[in-house]
Amino acid sequence: MRFDVLTLFPEMFPGYLGQSLLKLAIQRGLVDVKLHDIRDWAKDKHKSVDDRPFGGGPGMVLRVEPVVECVEAVREEKDSASNAKDSQVRPGRLVMLTPQGRKLDQPLVEELAAEERLILLCGRYEGFDQRVRDILEPDEISVGDYVLNGGEVAAMVVIDAVIRLIPGVLGDEQSSQQDSFSASRRHLLEFSQYTRPREFRGHQVPEVLLSGDHQQIAAWREEESRRKTEQRRGDLLSPRESGE
Ligand code: 6GU
């Protein structure tokens, strides 16, 4: 799967991309992340990508020309894996990261993971000139009801959640299915996990986990999940009542 990230701060990404699961997925060719600096599409000699809002007010607005031209150029780029006989351009799904977007949840992550290519457009400042939306008609996505300084961290959240669902990215194929919010367990949180030692500062590992009785262990975990979910996230057990 290919991700194109359009940002004013491409330097924010290599640290994240070079770690852990994502690093391995990139090395194995399962994931490809291309960074694009929106400033490279600035028109004037000062390379300006933002300006003061018409009508006044605080902050700066991202200008329409560099953003639209950057997206158009990236959409035209062929997939890195393409060759002479397979040079079809795949424009990809355009996602704009903004606090006004559809809130990211696991069903949306699953939807995004079904795409071959995602173009992630990160905002900064007070937001985008409205004409960016009018012209490009992106899907707007927010990662939660709070305000970040920009879409970059949100883009990393999207990439992080999506790559878990790409076959071969997780070592153990089962582990993403057992995640709290995956389709097969959508309404339950994770049960508690333990590893060695069996006792630390008087805190014991529950006896049943040491029993070797896999049926009992499964039943205990199911009950733990249910109890934890009820206690912390009752809204997941009866989602309709929470107004979601
Ligand atoms: Cl995608 N961007 C910003 N700036 N703030 C956010 C967000 C995105 N999602 C939640 N808060």
Fraction of helical residues: 25-40%
* Structural class label: alpha/beta
Kindly provide the name of the CATH class of the largest domain: Alpha Beta
**Strand composition percent:** 15-25%
Radius of gyration, Cα only, in angstroms? 22 Å
CATH fold category name of the largest domain: Alpha/beta knot
CATH homology superfamily of the largest domain: SPOUT methyltransferase, trefoil knot domain
Would you identify the CATH architecture of the largest domain? Answer: 3-Layer(aba) Sandwich
The 3D shape can be described as elongated
Mean pLDDT across every amino acid position = 90
Q: What's the order of the H and E elements? A: EHHEEEHEHEHEHEEHH
List cofactors, ions and other ligands.
6-chloroguanine
Main sheet makeup: 5 strands, parallel
Query: What is the overall number of helices?
Result: 8
Give the spatial strand order of the biggest sheet. Answer: 2-1-6-5-7
Number of strands: 9
The rounded distance between the terminal residues' Cα atoms is 30 Å
The total tally of domains equals 2
**Low-confidence segments, ≥5 residues, pLDDT <50?**
none
